[in-house]
Amino acid sequence: MIKKITPSKISGEIKAPSSKSYMQRAVAIAVLANGKTTIHNPSFCNDAMSAIAMAKELGAEIKINQEEVVITGPKTICGGNLNAGESGLGIRMFSPISALSNEHINITGEGSLKNRPVNMLEEPLKSLGAEISTNNSFLPIKIKGPLSGGKVKVDGSISSQFLSGLLIALPLAEKDSVVEVNSLQSKPYVDMTLEIIHHFGVSIENHNYENFIINGGKKYTAKDYMVEGDWSAAAFHLVAAAIAGDVSVSNLNLKSKQADIKIIDVIKLAGADVIFSKGNNKMVGSISVSKNKLKAFNFDATHCPDLFPPLVVLCAACEGKSEIKGVDRLKHKESERATVLKEEMAKIGIQIEINGNIMIVNGGKIISGTIDSHNDHRIAMAAAVAALISNKGISIEGAEAINKSYPEFFDDLAVLTSKQ
Questions:
Q1: Over the stretch 339-356, which tens digit does the pLDDT of each residue have?
Q2: Which is nearest to 241 in space by CA: 13, 420, 17, 409?
Q3: Cβ–Cβ < 8 Å for 351, 364
Q4: Whose CB among 87, 114, 186, 374 lies 3.0–4.6 Å from 335's, allowing a Cys bridge?
Q5: How far out from the chain centre does Cα 111 lie?
Q6: Assign residue 213 a region: left if phi > 0, alpha if psi is -120 to 50, beta otherwise?
């Protein structure tokens, strides 16, 4: 699908969509919980629906309506064939969960996920008692448990997603476990996992993100769970406001553990106006951002790498050269995101240099052109935001990539848009 976005000022208010990261974690834990879990304010993006499909394949009973998803976990996890779609979190989180089963389980995926290595799963799961094999370090994965527990070392330098899966699964192992983690990245995502694990009645000891002590033989307690708004999705509209207008985004947890809440710090650093408004629930409220004169900035996105695409557009609207640290975290995303950002944004006049782990973005005028999303949802959304301050508009090839995380993105942008 090709989507054309024209230059526009934006104004108004939208509601942030539900967090796909929290939704996927809630679905995964509900599979393991005793009783009926009701997930309120659910996400129905592609990644969330893949998690629901995998939960069904593992034996969960699931009822869906617009307002909630009700999941009753099985007495024992079934064998079967799981398809994670294009969700990296789905693959890395459901692999340890599948390893709790005594039956054979095959896990596969689609699109770019087939080209993303999964070898980091093999040795840790084997050392914890599971049988596992891959296709020369790529999908599909074949797993058979049971996961017995024990002591294991995990490399956290590429992603925290596999660690999240282990933290969710190991409380149900027979023995206690100790997980030693080296060079952990994306610590906020681990905080999210620990928070939702605690909500469902299990506690894990976190020793400086280097050692996690997990008591085995536990069970999750089924509970109601409210999915909070997605800061990753909101970031695009907040950047759009900073460069092209005045927007308020509601349904956001102002004390969220989501990594991408850091977008507020960067927008302030660049010079845009930001106002916080609390709702009836003191934790949930709105963020209003207004355009102002923007200046270049330096920011470390190591623990929030998903902010790179909207930040590149923000940098382009600033005077001078901005630097974003954390390029190493952009490998094995939906696209090779550093390379794609450099090549695709050059088509619309955004000049990017990559110096080791630093991305340098030159501020300047954005011209019209055509951007290929490379089937990367965040590239598609970043291109749409850039179009707002382009001279004649931008066409986005593969615009349907937004369905992975935020199917309503273009509809919400249209609500905020008035043609010049």
A1: 999 999 999 999 999 999
A2: 13
A3: yes
A4: 374
A5: 17
A6: beta
- Contact between 314 and 324 (Cβ < 8 Å): no
Active site residue 300: no
SS3 42: coil
Q: 260, 306, 372, 376: which one is catalytic?
A: 306
Instruction: Record the tokens describing residue 14, joined without a space.
Output: 């939208």
pLDDT beneath 70: ranges in the chain: 280-282, 332-335, 418-420
Q: What confidence tens digit (pLDDT) does each residue in 46-98 have?
A: 999 999 999 999 999 999 998 999 999 999 999 899 999 999 999 999 999 99
Dihedral-angle region of residue 121 (phi above 0 means left; psi in -120 to 50 means alpha; beta otherwise)? alpha
Strands 138-144 and 131-135: antiparallel
Omega prior to 146 cis, within 30 of 0: yes
Q: How far is CA 109 from CA 47, 50, 86, 239, in A?
A: 11, 10, 6, 32
The whole-model pTM stands at: 0.94
